[in-house]
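Progress report, Aim 2. The chain analyzed during this reporting quarter is listed below.
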Amino acid sequence: TIGFDGRVIDAAFGRKLEKMLNDRNVTFEYETDLADALWTDRPGMPASDIWVVPEAQCGKTVARKLAEVREAMSKEEASHMLLAKLDDIMWLYNIRANDVDCNPVALSYTFISEKDAVIFVQNKALTEEAKAHFEKYKVQVKDYTQIVQFLETCELKGKVMCAYSEI
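Predicted structure tokens for the chain:
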């Protein structure tokens, strides 16, 4: 049995492992983060305050960017998009933070459908300014840790586009 935290290993690498080890009677356990169970004094994830970049500096409003994303989704006949690329998420919502050294991003995911947009961020990173910004553009805000539960309960029909960062 090979165990790993399925939240941090991308699907392509997981499939590659399965294919490589197919003839060796290997099973995979990826639902549980074993380090989390053993590491009792594990530091928390970084969570800096999210700030909004003025629209004059961004060139486009969040509404316009979401419309463009939805146009691209439509061309690909996709009903949903999951983004995990932090720089793309920051660009889309005209926000920044300091969760990663030398990169002004907030740990986050976003899920976009034809009608809705949901951002998953750490609640402690939400400033009043960020809350008002998301409310202005009708972006639902959910806690960062709820992404897996959200995806498990989502009714997905048709094609889902995904964008993530490769390490």
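Helices lie at 11-20, 34-38, 55-58, 62-75, 86-93, 128-136, 147-153. The mean pLDDT is 91. These observations will guide the mutagenesis work planned for the next reporting period.
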